[in-house]
What does this fold into?
Amino acid sequence: MEVGKNYNGFKLVSQENIDEIKSIGRVFEHEKSGARLFQLENDDDNKVFSISFRTPPEDSTGVPHILEHSVLCGSRKFPVKEPFVDLAKSSLNTFLNAMTFSDKTMYPVASRNEKDFFNLMDVYMDAVLYPNIYKYPEIFMQEGWHYELENKKDNINYKGVVYNEMKGEFSSPESILFRKVEESLYPDTPYSFESGGDPDVIPDLSIDEFLSFHKKYYHPSNSYIFLYGNGDISKELKFLNDNYLKNFDRIKIDSEIPFQKPFKSMKEMSVPYPLSSDESAADKTYLNMNFSVGKSTDPLIYLSFEILEYMLLETPAAPLKKALIDAGIGKDVLGRFDNSILQPVFSIVVKNSNEDKKDEFKRIVFDTLKGLVEKGLDKELIEASINIKEFELREADFRSYPKGLIYNIKSMDSWLYGEDPRIHLRFEPQLSQIKKALTSDYFEKLIEKYILNNTHSSFIVLKPEKGLTESRNRETEIKLERYKQGLSDRDLDKIIENTKKLQKRQTSPDSPEAVATMPNLSLDDIDPKVEKLPIVENDEAGVKVLFHPVFTGGIGYLNLYFDASPVPKELIPYEGLLAEVLGKEDTSKYDYAGLSNAVNIHTGGIEFNVETYIENGSNTKFHPKFVVRSKSLIDKLPKVMELIGEITRSTKFDDKRRLLEIIREVKSRFELMIFDRGHLVTAKRMSSYFSPSGMYNEITSGISFYKFISDLEKHFDDVYEKVISNLKRVSDMVFNRTNLLVSFTASKGDYEKLKSIIGDLLGKFGNSRLNPGAFDFEIDPENEGLMTQGRVQYSAKGYNFIELGYSYTGCLQVLQTILGYDYLWNMIRVQGGAYGAFASFGRGGNVYLSSYRDPNLKRTLDVFDNVGDYLEKFNAGKEEMTKYIIGTMSRLDFPMTPSMKGERATINYISHITTEDIQSERDDVLSCSAHDINKLSDMLKDVVKQNFLCVLGNEKNIKDNKQIFNNLINVFE
It folds into this structure.
């Protein structure tokens, strides 16, 4: 392509090779509409498209977020109520979502299938430019907020998907804090507002304001279009021009983000967060300092501060974190560098502190940083921090996310602000500049300029307040009571009419004409044969080694799966603790800071986890493993093995102070996860009532583990000798070569390198034949209500179908799609106002139905109970079943990175899942009929009839429904 020439309405402005990501980066401008377009051409078949808009909020009503949801609820060309859901259940997408940021809204999709890719582009372009929001006010009511009233005697309530999503978001202290950071630093800019929506302010948004925001910002002249992969760029440009962009003229849109004028001194802010009634407020305050750091359009600062933040606050060798912990300012320290906005922010957070330590916190931060500037940062720490970032950049393994999506988000960090979208993708110039820090005071000067001498800063105290959730809920109730009292009978009739109108729309099926507009694929677009995962069995020094030959670009992924079955039940919690402790304590050869540096200098990381793999087709047998995962360049394999041996066999567990620090950090991080992934917490807890593997997972990484860790912290002086002794006992039982399985994923010729050196590592482990520990398990429907100060619920219900005499079939995967995107979606999200709902069916028989950020409790459990009746009446024609099957295959055929292929092959090997088993599942999916789904109704009826359930959420809601539960537990007591 030639710069300056026009291609299907797009002028090519510039093109450059970006060697770092093996792509050609082209910047286009659509001459008629003013739309900007950035293309990354490469050989990746996982193609990505997105259209984004600069959407600076003007208040905290959440209008950008509500629009993000609403435009995907039907459009001119695709008038079904939920085209997003139709695509989710009927396309071969590898990514399908939309995202609201502080200053932009993005609509990305991905697919490996060309026809599907164009279908996704078509639906998304029509959605953002021609949404049905102008035609159906019910869309705003459903996705944003509305008054709900079914008869005049009832209380009026607020209801809406975004409203409840944000109630969940504002339940976590960390979330509340980080949402205040931008407001504290940038009060005169759109960053002072909550683009996602503050639940207390969302009901102030009118439908006219909602529609005018779309009219103002959702125009091609304010758009940023992204294309990635091995697609035909001429065809893609022609499609965008002919179907959409040629119909728009360029207009001037004022969406520019203004700069905040720097402060002359640090600004302070105090913010409350809710605490449940049984919790003590002592040691529950967050102290936070924030610094405005240059512009996100400066690629050197952008990358340098990512490395500096890791160096100072994240690695176990982090000197600022260590100084704050040693001084007893708090029990955990968090760091963050947010470079996704115009003026990036460097944040230091101390958790589990008290307000009276505010001045000491400031003093320690500034004194420590002054000392580091004067004496110089440890060069080994600098090298380690640069290396781990460089490894991450070169590896570009984003697990389940398409590469193009991550590059798209990164490109927006400069492109949105008028700069070249390629600057953050070309990292070699910055890396070579940053590496000079090994022989200069580069990082010290950054600390001096952007932290020590920077008055554009803020200090936030996040204070716990008992009864805050209750008082806010009561304020809302009073506000709604007063509102209702001021309404005439006619007004009330109008609200009831609107409620019924919305409910009618929600419960009415789309017309056949509307359904026919949605683009379809056929089963011919799917390969009926399963992809065989690479696996070669070898025996080295009496240990089974699985080799997965796949191109990895010079990286080796070495994983060790140790048999954990010898660990007796009373010591299983210590396995979870051992996984947290390893790599963070002194060893014979290293202190813990030096160990962390060595790992980061020579590897891409070494991780430790406790995992269970269920035996194929069994509801009772499972394989508990203590897993060591590592990744490195192939020539660093000897050093990786040396470090694994050092950590697993020479860790010193007897540093009392360090052990307590780790326990406190583990507890702190777990508390954050409870709010972020509440649906997983409840599903894990609930499955522990009826599943041996579920119980094992609960003990090592669930609420039981959190309670275990909390108890250790509370009584540490009394129990630490026992803790040290038990960690040693578990370590000796686990790190044994008997039943050890080694998995190695690398390019074909790299196995010989491993073979020549692995004997030394294996020789470091014991070789005793240990008997499996007793793991007594009894089915026990504990049915717990797990109470927090949160404002929403996470509910789970399920059981094991093999225990009830049923067998696994691939049709259960189709059922998962049907429930997730039809029954549960419609009943719990669309009609119930929750943010999400899920179903899961495992080969070992475990089933769970769950909800996420859900305002309801009893209603949701009733929805779960009625799932069998829904399946009994389920009626889908061949075309509709084909959609469900294609959506299921999209999930089953998810593109895997090299490391994921090696891991999946190993897990299948451990669980005795053969290629034939996977092919059989695939055959079941591809031939699944509506009748097959009907036949599953008895199974689901039997599952919910067992009445095994768990709910995590608002203390008052759970107490109001206490008759549902056998036990009520205050999670954070």
